[in-house]
Amino acid sequence: MTVSLIGVYGASGFGKEVMPLVRMQYPQFSNDSFVFIDDGQAGTLLNGYPVLGYAEFLDRLNTDKAVTIAIANSQIREKLAIRLTQDGIQHLNIRANNTVILDEVDIGEGSLFCSFTCLTSNIKIGKFFHANIYSYVAHDCVIGDYVTFAPSVKCNGNVHIEDHAYIGTGAVIKQGTPDKPLVIGKGAVVGMGAVVTKSVPAGATVIGNPARILEKK
């Protein structure tokens, strides 16, 4: 890679976890090549790295820049991704060095795989997917754009997850079948520890074991 400045967008708790993964993926760069980007904390240091506002990041003299977006909110992630593309900033695909990826796995740009994540075989994943620690995606799954896995998500085979879905910590998604995959609809939220045994409608929030729709009051 021929960039000279690498940014982690988001100086939050998740950003703190992502920066070491970025640094390990690019050991050829000095510490001076890594920065956080966060308008709310600009001008500070985080774990020894400067936090820049976005305008300052763009104004740096380095001609070649690249960014990973360490923000769980998928709507914000999409807005930032569009802005970065418009400004000609390269999107990074970040993978912890112990990530396991097997056969016939297609991954879109801007992905982020934290430590101990696993993708088995025959999987298609869209843009800007986040998989937090100890998460896995099993065979024959299709995952859309801007999907977020919190830690320890277990997504079994023949599951389709549509754009902007959020899967909470420790959730388990039951395996579907080739002729009838289990579907998590667009923008759905699967709560922490939920056990999903049937498809979830778009925009719904499900909780519990077995998972049920959380009714709005």
What is the straight-line distance between the termini?
51 Å
CATH class of the largest domain: Mainly Beta
- CA radius of gyration: 18 Å
H/E element sequence = EHEEEHEHEEEEEEEEEEEEEEEEEEEE
Q: Provide the CATH architecture of the largest domain.
A: 3 Solenoid
Number of domains: 2
**Biggest sheet features:** 8 strands, mixed
Helix content: 10-25%
* pLDDT averaged over residues: 96
CATH topology of the largest domain: UDP N-Acetylglucosamine Acyltransferase, domain 1
Q: What structural category do the secondary elements indicate?
A: alpha/beta
Q: State the shape.
A: globular
Strand residue content: 25-35%
Ranges with pLDDT <50 over ≥5 residues? Answer: none
Number of helices: 3
Task: Please describe the topology of this protein.
Blueprint: E1 5-9, H1 13-25, E2 34-37, E3 45-46, E4 49-52, H2 54-59, E5 65-69, H3 74-86, E6 90-91, E7 94-95, E8 100-101, E9 105-107, E10 112-113, E11 118-119, E12 123-125, E13 130-131, E14 136-137, E15 142-143, E16 148-149, E17 154-155, E18 159-161, E19 166-167, E20 172-173, E21 182-184, E22 189-190, E23 195-196, E24 205-207, E25 212-213
Parallel strand pairs: 1-2, 1-5, 2-4, 5-6, 7-10, 8-11, 9-12, 10-13, 11-14, 12-15, 13-16, 14-17, 15-18, 16-19, 17-20, 18-21, 19-22, 20-23, 22-24
Antiparallel strand pairs: 3-4, 24-25
Site (Increases basicity of active site His): 140
Pfam families: PglD_N
InterPro entries: AcTrfase_PglD-like (IPR020019), PglD_N (IPR041561), Trans_hexapeptide_repeat (IPR050179), Trimer_LpxA-like_sf (IPR011004)
